Amino acid sequence: MNQLIVIALDLIAIGVLAFAVYYPRHRRRDLAVAFVGINVGVLAVAMVLGSSTIGAGLGLGLFGVLSIIRLRSREIEQSEIAYYFASLAIGLIAGISGSISWLAASLIVLVVAVIAIVDSPAILGGSRARTITLDRAYTDEDELQQAVDSLLGCRGATISVRSLDLVSDTTSVDVRYRAVLKTPRPAAAAPVTPTQTPTLQVQR
After folding, report:
1. Is 0.85 surpassed by the pTM of this model?
2. Count of C-beta atoms within a 10 Å radius of residue 196
C-alpha cells in the first residue's frame, strides 16, 4: 500500500513538473513526454534495485550513461537539462525510499517548487541570449559594444566574440542582455462617424 502511495506521489509530481510548469512555458511536447518517460523508468528500476541484491551503484551508473547519450543526441537548452535532472531526482527519491515518508515527500515537493520558481518568467523573464553576425569587423571593443547595444535596444550587454573575420569584414558574437519589456499600448478607439438625423417631409 505504501508503494502505491509513493507511485501516486511520483506521478503527481512529474505531471505537475512536465505539463503544468514546463510545457506552458517552453511548448515542447517531445521533451514533456521524455521527462515523464524517464521519471517513470527511473522510478521502476530504482524500486526493483531497492528490493533486490543488485548494487544501487550499478543502476545509477547505467542511468548516468543513458542520460548522457540522450542529452548528446540533440541540442537542448541548459534550462531543459535542469528539467531532465529534476525528473531523474524525483524518480530516484521515490524509488529508493520505497515507502512514503515526510522526508521523501518534502524533497519531491522541493525539487518541483525550485524548478517552477527559478524558471518563472517573473524572475528571469527579461534575460535574452543571442548569437549575432555583424556586417563589419569590429576590432575596437567600445565600438562593438555601442553597435550591439544600438542594434538590440539595450545598454551594457555582455558580449563574447566568437569570430572576427577581417577578410569578409564580419564579426560573430554571443550576446547576453536584459530586454526592456514593453507594456502593450491600449487599442485606439474607432472613430465615431456622425449619423444623419432623418428628416420628416410633410406633404401638403
Report:
1. no
2. 6
Dig out the grid coordinates for 102 from the structure: 515526510
Work out the angle at residue 178's Cα, subtended by the Cα atoms of residues 17 and 126, and round it to the nearest 5 degrees. Answer: 35
DSSP symbols for the chain: -HHHHHHHHHHHHHHIIIIIIIHHHH--HHHHHHHHHHHHHHHHHHHHHHTSSS-HHHHHHHHHHHHHHHHHHS---HHHHHHHHHHHHHHHHHHHH-S--HHHHHHHHHHHHHHHHHT-HHHHTTEEEEEEEESS----HHHHHHHHHHHHT-SS-EEEEEEEETTTTEEEEEEEEE--PPPPPPPPPPPPPPPPPPPPP---
83-107: pLDDT as tens digits: 988 998 898 888 887 777 888 899 9
Q: How far apart are CA 191 and CA 189, in angstroms?
A: 6
Q: Which residues contact 115 (CB under 8 A, 6 or more apart)?
A: 17, 21, 82, 83, 86
Closest CA to 40 of 18, 24, 68: 18
Region of 132 on the Ramachandran plot (φ > 0 left; ψ -120 to 50 alpha; else beta): beta
Q: In angstroms, rounded to a whole number, what is the distance separating the alpha carbons of residues 155 and 178? A: 8
Maximum alpha-carbon separation in the chain: 113
